[in-house]
Design a protein that fits this description.
heterodimer, A: 578 residues, alpha/beta, 3 domains, 17 helices, 22 strands, B: 349 residues, Glucose Oxidase, domain 1, OB fold (Dihydrolipoamide Acetyltransferase, E2P), SH3 type barrels, twelve-stranded mixed β-sheet, 5 helices
């Protein structure tokens, strides 16, 4: 691998199931900047079955925008940059396109190693097609048949604390050995062993005659400790390797890349961890990517990364599976118009057939945004199930995915995230319409300078700061008093009532100092209980206090609920400017 | 911009790969003529196994020692009761196989028996000629004829005589229109909103049903049927486009084939093939948006409407709902020109 530290220009390409994005970074006045970004339809699927065409179109657009030649007459990416200014010095690739990988998880105790194996599987683009643990009451034959039926691309074997169980792990290993011997050579799964380290050598020797075995450090070194991180990195590499075999044209691109091809979700997670490392506060950072084929939530703090890929929750090709998980009434309750349920269902099913289709009317736009809210809700709930105790107060929330990041107005984006995510405390929202996070995550592994400078460069749009207090006060009661002091020392004061959503009089880019007095037992930020005075910078939506309560209660009566949704939307659109 | 293409063609050359999911035997040869129902490849897939633990059965803890007692080899076919291991000595212990099967591995003192297999076969799907053989997998079948590609299917294939139930492109099909005389036919209806209609097709043993559109709530019913269902326009009440309707009414009582497979990433689209005794040219599968193309619009308020692309607009166009998108002007009829996102257009070839 070549270091990027001395590189000047970097081209990042993210290949999604729907879109291929190309981003060009270069040094301007001694600092890295995002020069431009371009998008084209992905061509991983039929009729092309080769990502190269989509990449070529995206690069052609990027060339048109920047006036800089990036490809040769033979349509090859010019690497490195040439004295005439053409080409780039480095290339980084991320990919989320490709069919779901089938993953079988194996472990010992359901609530310990098997749970960790499931969480590990949830960090990549796959579906768990079977799970085998100590409590599995099936006969060995039945387990074997289930394992074969699951057609795994990857088998994750976990279990046994360090110096712990060995016999049960050996049994799992024997089962896998039997299965791999029955399978045709070309369909044998890759094995990721992340159990008791004392057995790693033996398991590897036992299985590697028949298939590829990769060993990672124990994800459950003791019963109370989980450490997914090293195994996550290895799983990402296995996923990327399988993708390069599965997705036409990716191998050729990978051979030119300065960094290993990474799954987009892993790159997003790495970027969140990187961003968290840059933060001063003791809060975590959240990255949301609501894509066509999957939703990804990456929560990072100084010690941990909780990466969650929800392959069955997508806004395009993933809609048909999302509709199996989500009740229609849970989608309909977010729609501020009177649209029959059948019409909502028909529209969303049609969208699953034509994932690129865009809403042309305000009603269908509202409908897609309702779906986005409910997918976010579902993703958050599942994240909390996987990682109980996760705080929903974030230092920064990075928002990507077309439905969220390319809405008709920044207010729509903000409302979708507030409604779907329902964060608490003080949260700065960052808009990522270009898929920057995935690109920077891929680059961050070898060059920390570029992402750090890009974050500071304003390439992410500041959507605004959302203050989401927690209060048990009755609706209408005053729960907060705010004093906003501007840089010219003028100030304004306002009160916030429980149940309201209140835009603050702070313009985009304006710096303001807030003093907050909480009333009636209200907590502004559970992660920062002493935070009463702080500075914020207005974003595209200025800043907002969301005092509607957690969880957000929508009225049961459909007419009143629609009025409630429209009132909230109007409150935001009619925001008062300072 | 790259344009998705849907084929609605009165005469074209059609080539389709028919292959097994696992390696097997190809039963046809290049140049052979086949009918839709002809099996062109077969395979046997293992579907059941049994593990015999010889160590435990003979009470010998060491795997190697237990394996020395096994009197059969990998590949041996066994019948229930056959001896597979014996310990020897004065009080020899014997293990017999509890079921028929084939030994596929001996390892760790255990014997793995394959006890069940399932037969897989792949059919031609439409009448044509075998143009290429894919070793151990299947073949490419070729024909000339009319082709109508749909948007959703329930995964099944069949062929039969085409009968029209609809009298207009936007008619809703009802239970009463399905008659006993249609048994064994492929019927063409309009919009379907009733599960009774789909079930009536099963009762009458239809060979297939082609619909312009269907209520999405019927997807689970349609997916559970034993005959193919092909949707041409999509979900929600959408009339059949004129091009497809004209083709279908002129093809009534012809033998047609439905392939209702749906796997877009793999290039499988649900389609209706009407083999014809004429030579067609193959149609392109990809295109770029350009003036004068016939396009179909997806999404309200123009769902299913077809028109002529007038121009691709430069830059971004702001829709009435505020979204800023790459767009094109489409002439729907002599009086109506609309601007729609490129993402909502398919080129109809």
């Amino acid at each position: 691998m070549t270091s990027l530290v001395d590189a000047e220009s970097v081209l990042a390409i993210d290949i999604g199931s729907l879109n291929t994005r190309a981003l060009l970074f270069d040094v301007v006045d001694g600092q890295y900047h995002l020069i431009s970004a371009a998008v084209a339809p992905s061509t991983a699927g039929a009729p092309f079955r080769d990502v190269s065409e989509g990449v070529h179109i995206a690069l052609t657009r990027l060339q048109e925008i920047t006036g800089r030649a990036l490809t040769s007459n033979e349509a090859q990416i010019i690497l490195p940059s040439q004295p005439d200014g053409s080409g780039v010095d480095r290339l980084a690739i991320t990919c989320s396109a490709g069919a779901d990988l089938n993953i079988v998880t194996m472990g010992l105790l359901t609530d310990v190693s098997l749970l960790s194996a499931q969480r590990l599987a949830g960090t990549t683009y796959g579906q768990v097609t079977d799970s085998i643990g100590l409590n599995d009451r099936r006969r060995v034959d039945a387990q074997l048949d289930a394992l074969l039926q699951a057609r795994p691309d990857i088998i994750i074997i976990a279990g046994g604390t360090e110096k712990g169980a060995t016999r049960s792990i050996n049994k799992l290993s024997e089962l896998v050995l039997m299965a791999t011997r029955v399978m045709p050579k070309e369909t044998r799964p890759k094995i990721l062993y992340c159990g008791n380290g004392a057995l790693a050598k033996r398991v590897k020797e036992n299985l590697e005659r028949d298939t590829v075995v990769v060993v990672a450090p124990n994800i459950r070194p003791n019963i109370d400790t989980e450490d997914l991180s090293p195994a996550e990195t290895i799983l990402a590499k296995i996923t990327a390797k399988l993708r390069t075999l599965q997705v036409g044209g990716l191998e050729g691109l990978a051979s030119m890349s300065s960094t290993p091809v990474l799954p987009s979700a892993f790159a997003l997670g790495r970027m969140m961890r990187f961003s968290s490392d840059l933060s001063d506060l003791s809060k975590s950072t959240l990255g949301i990517d609501l894509g066509s084929g999957a939703a990804t939530l990456a929560i990072a703090d100084l010690d941990n990364l909780h990466l969650n890929v929800f392959r069955e929750l997508g806004m395009g090709s993933g809609l048909s599976s999302a509709l199996k998980q989500i009740r229609l009434e849970d989608i309909a309750r977010w729609v501020p118009y009177d649209i029959p349920d059948a019409e909502i269902r028909d529209y969303l099913y049609q969208k699953s057939l034509f994932p690129a289709m865009l809403p042309m009317t305000r009603e269908t736009l509202a409908l897609e945004q309702a779906m986005a809210r409910q997918i976010l809700r579902q993703a958050v709930q599942r994240t909390l199930e996987r990682w109980p105790g996760t705080d929903l107060s974030f230092e920064r929330i990075f928002i990507s995915g077309a439905t969220l990041a390319q809405a008709a107005s920044p207010m729509q984006t903000l409302m979708m995230v507030l409604d779907g995510l329902q964060p608490v405390g003080i949260n700065v929202m960052m808009l990522d319409p270009y898929g920057l996070s995935q690109a920077l995550g891929a680059i961050a592994g070898v060059n920390s300078l570029l992402p750090a400078q890009i974050i500071e460069s304003g390439a992410y749009a500041n959507l605004g700061t959302a203050l989401c207090p927690i209060s048990d006060a009755r609706p209408g009661a005053v729960i907060m008093r705010l004093k906003i002091t501007y840089e010219d020392n003028t100030d304004t004061r306002l009160e916030v009532k429980q149940g309201a959503i209140v835009p603050l009089p702070i313009r985009n880019g304006q710096i303001a100092h807030l003093e907050v007095e909480t009333l009636r037992g209200t907590v502004l930020d559970p992660c920062l209980p002493r935070m009463k005075r702080f500075r914020i910078v207005g974003g595209l939506c200025g800043a907002v206090v969301d005092a509607r309560g957690r969880p957000l209660n929508l009225l049961n009566d459909p007419v009143k609920r629609r009025e409630q949704l429209l009132t909230w939307a109007r409150a935001m659109e009619d925001r008062r400017l300072a | 911009m790259l344009a998705p293409v849907t084929h609605i063609l009165p005469l074209t050359s059609i080539r389709r790969l028919r292959s097994l999911p696992v390696p097997g035997r190809v039963l046809v040869r290049a140049g052979q003529k086949v009918n839709a129902s002809d099996v062109i490849a077969q395979a046997t897939a293992p579907s059941g196994h049994h593990v015999l633990d010889i160590r435990r059965g003979l009470g010998i803890p060491q795997a190697a020692a237990a394996e020395r007692c096994i009197v059969r080899q990998v590949g041996d076919k066994l019948e229930k009761g056959d001896v597979i291991a014996e310990s020897g000595g004065l009080f020899s212990r014997i293990i017999r196989t509890p079921m028929d099967g084939e030994i596929i591995s001996i390892s760790g003192g255990q014997i793995l028996l394959r006890t069940q297999t399932s037969d897989l076969e792949v059919r031609a799907g439409f009448a044509g000629t075998v143009s290429d053989i894919i070793k151990d997998q299947g073949a490419i079948i070729e024909t000339s004829g009319a082709l109508i590609q749909g948007v959703w299917g329930n995964g099944l294939t069949d062929s039969g005589m085409l009968l029209l139930v609809s009298n207009s492109p936007d008619e809703e099909i009802n239970r009463q229109q399905i008659e006993v005389s249609m048994r064994g036919a492929i019927i063409m209806g309009g919009y379907c909103s009733s599960a009774d209609v789909l079930r009536a097709g099963a009762d009458l043993q239809l060979r297939g049903m082609v619909l312009s559109s269907m209520a999405s709530e019927l997807v689970p019913v349609a997916a559970s049927l034993k005959y193919p269902v092909l949707i041409i326009e999509g979900f929600g009440r959408t009339p059949l486009n004129d091009a497809a309707y004209r083709l279908l009414i002129t093809s009534e009582k012809r033998d047609v084939s439905i392939s209702a497979a749906l796997n877009p990433p793999a290039g499988e689209r649900p389609e209706l093939i009407i083999p014809l005794p004429a030579i067609g040219q193959s149609a392109p599968e990809t295109d770029y948006f350009a003036p004068n193309q016939i396009v179909r619009i997806q999404g309200a308020p123009y769902a299913g409407k077809m028109g002529t692309l007038v121009q691709v607009r430069p830059g971004l166009f702001t829709l009435p709902n505020g979204l800023k998108v790459p767009a094109a002007d489409i002439q729907l009829d002599s009086d109506t020109r609309v601007t729609v996102p490129l993402a909502n257009l398919e080129v109809i070839e």
